[in-house]
Amino acid sequence: MTDIAYIGLDHHHCPAYLESIAQLDAEVTCACEPSGDPTPADLDGLGDVAFYRDPDQLLAEEDVDLVWVTLSNRATPAVLRSAVERDVDVFTEKPAARTATELESVAEAARHSSSTVGVSYTWRGHPVSRRLRDLADAGFFGDVDAFDARFVASALDARDTDHYLFDGPASRGGIVQWLGVHWLDLVPWMLDDPIVRVNARTSASTPTVDVEDGAALQIETESGAIGTLTCGYFLRQGRYDTHIAVYGDRGRSEWDPMGKTFGFDGETTLELDSADDGWASTPHRSETYEYDGTPGYGGKWGLEFFEEYFAARNGVCEPPATLEDALTVLRVLDATYESAETGEWTRVAGR
Predict the structure, then answer these.
(1) How far apart are CA 346 and CA 197, in angstroms?
(2) Cβ distance 15 to 45 under 8 Å?
(3) If we measure between CA atoms, which residue out of 209, 132, 196 comes closest to residue 166?
(4) Distances, alpha carbon 44 to alpha carbons 19, 38, 91, 109, 338, in Å
(5) Averaged pLDDT in 10-residue chunks for the chain of 351 residues
(6) DSSP string covering 189-221, please?
(7) Cα angle: 81, vertex 87, 58; to 5 degrees
């Protein structure tokens, strides 16, 4: 049984993560929320556990196997550093910091630690994501020419904009830093083709919010493929519009990862077209994936992602998403926000 310290209860994903943890060989034995006094909502789903307001005090006093962190982007790096310097394993919400600079020293500390650090880029665990990665690796697309991605969610008037998620100093960015990061991580991972430069435009049409609520990115990858990412808080309450399409000189794919409403029940379909001779009799194929109605973050495939991270803690495999992966995404975010300010194409640091 893995003893978990959960740090950061005032987070949108906390209830779903606690549902997932309840299905793992793990137990939350202590918790921390740095803001204000404990409320029933803070403790909901936790049971009778030791409760703290100071993460450092928790880490100094509690003997735990794993720290699960869902704090603001501003507060996360310090807690990650405290955990890895104590050689405690960590699983953290994405993107793990506001900027790459804030995470670089933490990543360096982790390299000299025995901690196993995982990052919640859980879309890597989706069966369609892994199917597309395998197809790309097998040459299904040939040379990838272009890709198109969207992550559009409900408008800010349907959201609690007083939360730190929508606060510039706490989060650095808005829709790109919160939801767009999923595709900025996933698409290069599926294609094994890092992003090397971006040209971004952002909009901030909600006067009471100091982060962007819309963005459009042009993207170039190492192979020379060009892509787009559109994201924004544009829809009515509870609605989503997500899309990932890949266009190669031999094959094409199209997928709506999220569906019209948030949730992972029902089914999702992957559309495939191939010019390969082996597909000549049925060049267009649809693959339907049915979701198993499993509670928790990401449902069944989210749980499998967490199980893979737990296996990595036991040395069976590598974590499905690492702190180095988080650093890569943050460098893309840095280039995105710099480009939005300058109006110019911006190269990703290290690429």
Answers:
(1) 5
(2) yes
(3) 209
(4) 11, 11, 21, 33, 40
(5) 96 93 96 76 76 96 98 98 98 98 97 98 97 98 98 93 95 97 98 98 91 97 98 94 97 92 77 96 95 88 96 97 98 98 97 93
(6) HHHT--EEEEEEEEE---TT--S-SEEEEEEEE
(7) 65
